[in-house]
Each structure stands twice: as structure tokens, then as C-alpha cells.
Design a protein that fits this description.
Layout: H1 2-17, E1 25-40, E2 46-47, E3 49-61, E4 66-82, E5 97-106, E6 108-113, E7 119-135, E8 150-163, E9 168-179, E10 182-186, E11 189-207, H2 210-214
Antiparallel strand pairs: 1-3, 1-11, 2-4, 3-4, 4-5, 4-6, 5-7, 6-7, 7-8, 8-9, 9-11, 10-11
Length: 215
């Protein structure tokens, strides 16, 4: 009985200690996997690619409920050959695949829910810089061939924190990104396309302000 009460009190203390105050700062390394594909208004439907997902995020708290999230993230977008044949596309090869590797910098607001602030939702713009371009057919492998290496999009994500101790938590984190659509004109026709990606990650959340908060 005493052990059960002690564990309950310890768990309550740890959980309460994880509620952030104004001025708190976290560093959040993470790793997982992502899927990405190309969407367009054309006749082709492209298959998804699977890529690693990793990076380091930083979070600054304005209150126990609101914070600003940013960081440096690896984001890969791309596609596999279409499931619907497009007679005008080089992408019809059975094993065709293209991948554009990027550095992503989110500038997101985050809101933290629940009595112990274990749940969170983040949303906002994400800035992208292309660092590597690769196709299986050998064409366009020079990143300098990409005219729009700088671009942007919108990101949104949700997660759940599991407190381990006063300074450390683990989180299961889901993030999605949608690139701002681009428009291409062929003769008298105008078409659009955009990439979308989704990632499932495990985060290690380290509170850099724990000593300050405990005083």
C-alpha cells in the first residue's frame, strides 16, 4: 500500500513538473518515417515513397498553453511511377522514382491541451530549401537543375507526451506537410500540382529550463 501511494505521488509530481511555464525552452530531437506523393489535376495518379524522418526542434513557451515551435528538419518529397498511364510523361517507366531531399524550417504555433498539457497541436508555415535531387532514370540529378529550391508550404501536427522525469519526456508525434501548389501552362491549358507528406516520429523532449522552474 505504501509503495502504491509513493508511486502515485511520484507520478503526480513528475506530471505536474512537465507543465511548462512562460519562458520555458525545450529541445526535441526526433526520428521516424514519412510517406510522400505528388498530387495533380492531371490524369496520372502517382504512388507514394517512404523515407526516413529526423531532425531537431526547439520550442519556446509563452504560457503553459501556447508556444512557438521551430527547428531544422530533414524532409524528403517525391513519387513513384503512376498507376494510371500518362502518354506524355517520362514517369511511366515501371520502376521510375524521384526524390527531392530538403531542409525544412517550421515556424509553428503550438497549443497544449489537457489538465497536464500532455496533448498538443501545432500548425503554421514551413520554409523549405532543396539540397538533393535524384531520379532512377539518371536525369535531373543535379540539384542546380531545380529552379525552385526555395519554396514553402503549410504544416500541421499532433502529439502526445509521456513524462519520464522532471526534465525528460517521450512523445509520439504525427506531422503533415502540404506544399503550396504550382501552376504549369501547356498551350491553352493550365494545370496545378503539389506534394504532400506525412510523418510518424518518436520525440525525446528535454526541458532546458528545469532548474529555473524548480526554484
Amino acid at each position: 500500500m505504501k509503495n502504491t501511494l509513493f508511486i502515485a505521488l511520484l507520478t503526480s509530481f513528475i506530471t505536474n513538473a512537465q507543465v511548462r511555464e512562460k519562458g520555458s525552452v525545450e529541445i526535441q530531437p526526433y526520428a521516424g518515417f514519412s510517406t510522400s506523393k505528388l498530387y495533380s489535376d492531371g490524369g496520372a495518379t502517382y504512388k507514394s515513397i517512404v523515407s526516413p524522418s529526423f531532425g531537431v526542434d526547439f520550442e519556446f513557451y509563452f504560457s503553459s498553453k501556447w508556444s512557438l515551435k521551430s527547428g531544422i528538419e530533414f524532409l524528403e518529397i517525391g513519387l513513384k511511377n503512376p498507376t494510371f498511364y500518362d502518354p506524355y510523361s517520362v514517369r511511366n517507366e515501371p520502376k521510375y522514382e524521384e526524390r527531392l531531399s530538403n531542409i525544412a524550417v517550421p515556424i509553428h504555433a503550438a497549443v497544449h491541451f489537457g489538465k497536464k498539457r500532455n496533448l498538443y497541436l501545432n500548425f503554421g508555415p514551413t520554409l523549405i530549401y532543396g539540397i538533393r535531387y535524384k531520379t532512377t532514370d539518371g536525369f535531373g540529378t543535379d540539384i542546380n537543375d531545380i529552379e525552385d529550391r526555395f519554396y514553402g508550404g503549410l504544416g500541421i501536427g499532433v502529439g502526445y507526451k509521456l513524462p519520464i522525469n522532471e526534465t525528460f519526456s517521450l512523445a509520439l508525434d504525427y506531422q503533415s506537410f502540404t506544399r503550396i501548389p504550382e501552376f504549369i501552362t501547356y498551350g491553352s491549358e493550365t494545370h496545378f500540382y503539389f506534394y504532400g507528406s506525412s510523418a510518424l516520429n518518436v520525440k525525446a523532449i528535454i526541458n532546458l529550463s528545469s532548474n529555473k522552474e524548480s526554484k
